[in-house]
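// run 5 | inverse folding | seed 20
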C-alpha cells in the first residue's frame, strides 16, 4: 500500500484563499481591517526569515501588518513596553513576538505581557492553561499544533476514539498537540526521550504525530499498517547535490513509512505551510471578536 500524501501546501493555500475572501467581506461590510503586529528582537537569521514570511502572507490576505524590530540588546522593559503599547492599539488584533528571544530576556514574562485577546500565537499561560483543562476553551491555540489538527480534519481523518501517539512533549508542539487530540477525544500517549521501547508504543497509533527533531527517526516498522502519520520535524541533512549543501527532512523516514501508512505528510510541504495559515486564521478571528462579530 502506498499512502495518500497529505498536501499541506495545497491545504494552506485553500485556507489563505478563504481568509482573503473573509477579510474583504469584513472590510466591505463592517469596515474592519485585521491587524497583526510582529515583534522581532535581534537578527537571528531564521527568525528574520520567519517574520518576513509572516508579514508577506498577512499582506497577501489583506491583513494589515505592523513590523517592529528591536536590537538584540533590548531590555526586558523595552520589549514589554512595546507589547503593552500594542495591547492598547485598537488597530492591532494580534501580537506575535518571534521566539526564541535573546537569552538575557525573560521569555515567559514577555509572553505573559501580551493581552490574551491578542495572543494569536497561543502561548500566553492563560491560553495554554485553558487548553490543558477539560471543558475550557482557549481564545487561541498555538499555530503549528492547530495546523496538525486542521490537516487531519481537512483530510477527513476521524480523531474521536482513535489511539493517538505524539512523539515529543515540547511547549511549542508536542504538548499542545497532545492536548488538542485529547480535546477531540482521542486516547493520547505522549512519548519523550525517556520513553522505553518507542517502536512498541508508536505501533499502537492510529494517528502518529512526530515532533522530535531527529532526522528520519520513525522507521517503517514503527508504524501500524494503515496509520495516519503527521511529521512535524524539520531537520537539515547534508546533501552535496543540493544547491545549499543540505536539504530538509522530517522526523519520519518518508520512503519507508509511506509504504505502511494510509496517509502521511511530506517534509517540506506538510505541516510547515500550515503554521502561518493558522496564524492568519487566528488574527482574523481576533479582529472579528474585537468587533463583536
Ligand atoms: N512549523 C513547523 O513546521 C514547525 C514548528 C515548530 C517545530 N518544528 C519542528 O518540529 C521538531 C520538534 O520541535 P520542538 O520545538 O518540539 O523540539 P524540542 O523542543 O527539541 O522537543 C523535542 C521533543 O522530542 C523529544 N525527543 C528528542 N529526542 C528524542 C528521542 N531520541 N526519542 C524520543 N523523544 C525524543 C524530547 O524529549 P524530552 O522532553 O525528554 O527532552 C522533546 O520532548 C523540530 O524538528 C522542529 O524543527 C516544526
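// decoded
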Amino acid at each position: 500500500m502506498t499512502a495518500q500524501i497529505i498536501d499541506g501546501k495545497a491545504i494552506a493555500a485553500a485556507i489563505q484563499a478563504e481568509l482573503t475572501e473573509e477579510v474583504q467581506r469584513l472590510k466591505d461590510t463592517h469596515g474592519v481591517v485585521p491587524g497583526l503586529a510582529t515583534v522581532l528582537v535581534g537578527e537571528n537569521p531564521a527568525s528574520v526569515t520567519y517574520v518576513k514570511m509572516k508579514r508577506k502572507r498577512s499582506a497577501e490576505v489583506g491583513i494589515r501588518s505592523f513590523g517592529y524590530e528591536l536590537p538584540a540588546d533590548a531590555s526586558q522593559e523595552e520589549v514589554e513596553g512595546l507589547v503593552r503599547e500594542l495591547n492598547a492599539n485598537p488597530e492591532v488584533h494580534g501580537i506575535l513576538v518571534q521566539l526564541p528571544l535573546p537569552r538575557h530576556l525573560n521569555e515567559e514574562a514577555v509572553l505573559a505581557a501580551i493581552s490574551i485577546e491578542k495572543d494569536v500565537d497561543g502561548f500566553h499561560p492563560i491560553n495554554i492553561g485553558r487548553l490543558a483543562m477539560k471543558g475550557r476553551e482557549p481564545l487561541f491555540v498555538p499555530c503549528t499544533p492547530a495546523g496538525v489538527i486542521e490537516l487531519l480534519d481537512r483530510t477527513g481523518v476521524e480523531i474521536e476514539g482513535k489511539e493517538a501517539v505524539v512523539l515529543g512533549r515540547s511547549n511549542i508542539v508536542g504538548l499542545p498537540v497532545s492536548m488538542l487530540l485529547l480535546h477531540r477525544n482521542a486516547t493520547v500517549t505522549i512519548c519523550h526521550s525517556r520513553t522505553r521501547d518507542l517502536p512498541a508504543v508508536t505501533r499502537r497509533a492510529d494517528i502518529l504525530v512526530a515532533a522530535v527533531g531527529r532526522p528520519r527517526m520513525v522507521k517503517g516498522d514503527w508504524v501500524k499498517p494503515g496509520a495516519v502519520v503527521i511529521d512535524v520535524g524539520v531537520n537539515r541533512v547534508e546533501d552535496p547535490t543540493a544547491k545549499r549543501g543540505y536539504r530538509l527532512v522530517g522526523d519520519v523516514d518518508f520512503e519507508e513509512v509511506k509504504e505502511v501508512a494510509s496517509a502521511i505528510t511530506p517534509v517540506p510541504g506538510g505541516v510547515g505551510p500550515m503554521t502561518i495559515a493558522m496564524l492568519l486564521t487566528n488574527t482574523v478571528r481576533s479582529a472579528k471578536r474585537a468587533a463583536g462579530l
